[in-house]
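Why predict the complex rather than its parts? Because the way molecules touch one another can change local conformation, and only a joint prediction can capture that. The input here totals 681 residues.
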Amino acid sequence: MSRLILFGTGRGAEVAHRFLSADSEHQVVAFTVDGANLKEDRYRGLPVVPFEDVQRYYPPETFGMHILLGYQQMNGLRARKFADAKTKGYTLASYVSSDIFRITPIDIGENCFILDNQSISLDVKIGNNVVVWSSNHIGDMSQIDDHAWIASHVTVAANVRIGERAFVGIGATISNGVTIGADSFVGAHLLVSGDTAPRSVSLAEGQSAAGIDAATFMRLMMARKKL
Amino acid sequence: MSRLILFGTGRGAEVAHRFLSADSEHQVVAFTVDGANLKEDRYRGLPVVPFEDVQRYYPPETFGMHILLGYQQMNGLRARKFADAKTKGYTLASYVSSDIFRITPIDIGENCFILDNQSISLDVKIGNNVVVWSSNHIGDMSQIDDHAWIASHVTVAANVRIGERAFVGIGATISNGVTIGADSFVGAHLLVSGDTAPRSVSLAEGQSAAGIDAATFMRLMMARKKL
Amino acid sequence: MSRLILFGTGRGAEVAHRFLSADSEHQVVAFTVDGANLKEDRYRGLPVVPFEDVQRYYPPETFGMHILLGYQQMNGLRARKFADAKTKGYTLASYVSSDIFRITPIDIGENCFILDNQSISLDVKIGNNVVVWSSNHIGDMSQIDDHAWIASHVTVAANVRIGERAFVGIGATISNGVTIGADSFVGAHLLVSGDTAPRSVSLAEGQSAAGIDAATFMRLMMARKKL
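Output of the joint prediction:
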């Protein structure tokens, strides 16, 4: 059991608070936001303190942290806040749903958030700050690098590598041995049977993103809210 | 624990009887069918009584009901029988598999039938008489309206709305924020990234239903039995 | 509880050893390989004996066997070794993950290997030597014939028949009432809404295998390692 500070006061922080409280050994004791966004000093019944000097209130020797943010800026915001928290000296706790069947512990880094109803095969490696939402399959000996985001109902076959900060959309299917490039975007319901290039956008038939890099594409998609 | 009457003596009633008996606090005590279909007065070891005056045999003050029918007539038959049972004064019990991981109770109406191996995210709302078969993902804050049918291995992203009596086929993927129109049909293995119109038919590449409304389409499909 | 001999000393044998040891009533006591491949007399801390006369070391009256091999030669290698073990008089144990929710026992043959996070509906029949990896849905009253291989996140609707030695790739969706022909190959992420012919290859849009039978196709795919 450890006492955690959660970053943010938005939906991510709320979701993390609810899952960590109901289904982990951790106890959330406070929230922290960038000082410029600090409007209220309480959220969900707990104190909110400025991130700039969170370590004065909740020193990293005694408290852990967890940061669950959206995939904005191709996971760039999440990567940056994770790095900031590490610079401040925090250990970041990972949440792994108790609902996942395992015969051995998952090989996983810090600040991951992994929900229920998934199959994660043997000898999978998951880096730091990885989100694996619900109902995915991660195949034998696959590797998911830091800051990547796997949505829901994704099928990752065996010996796949998902690069840093890559985003894999709902219902995508990735064949054996494929490498998903760092910072690349894999659209919903896409079959990926060959490697994808760093920063590339790959979309299902009938959708296009000609000449657009993944960061730009995601910005446009988020504006449309139909990601 | 409540005592239930099941509507029908077909496969739906059999499946409901088996799941309710093995995995709920309810006890099935009888079956009821439309008088015109009452051929045998016993089914699966229990009495069968005519639906027209079921309330004389099993008064709604004492007994509950459950109705699991197929999606014939774009869920119209199910919607009608549900309304009839409500008119007679019954409370209809919902079945939710004990196998679904939840940190909070599901917000769900009457007479739903929700099977195993699913992820249902936070703050999902499910109306009355909704079927969610197996292995689906229903995303954060999505809403499923009355009488809808979600098949299996469907991915519903966040903030999705599934309209009344809509049918969503196996392996379909519905993007964030999409509205599936009332009475519309979403075919198997389709990516839906924009709203669908009421009564429309949407099908995967290579299949067509030009100029056909969903009710007609479903009638044709059921005749072919390859839905 | 029974004592088992595992065939092979490759990844399949390792995976079977780990799942059987951690999640079954069986105890693995030895490995066996074809004499020509017998390089070391120990594997994973247990004896390795030649398959040609395994019954002298571990008689089939006392020991069971399990064989988990890959889908090489369109499941032909697996089918052959299974037949050899039966000829020697062995009973082959099936592994079914404890993580699968069931209200009745699965109707299943010998030497199956069925992993976690799956929904297997009522009245499904599974033959001998069938592999059903993770996170699949097998619908009501479907039948999977001997030596077939179902990968992961496959959706098999109701009343489907999967023929002998057929291979169904990750993320495939098979509609109600479809028959997948014996020895046929269904590619990843494919919607199959009609029957497939014996020995045929069916692939998602954008991939082709014109004029190639399934056994040839699989040989080419395995060489590319992007199955």
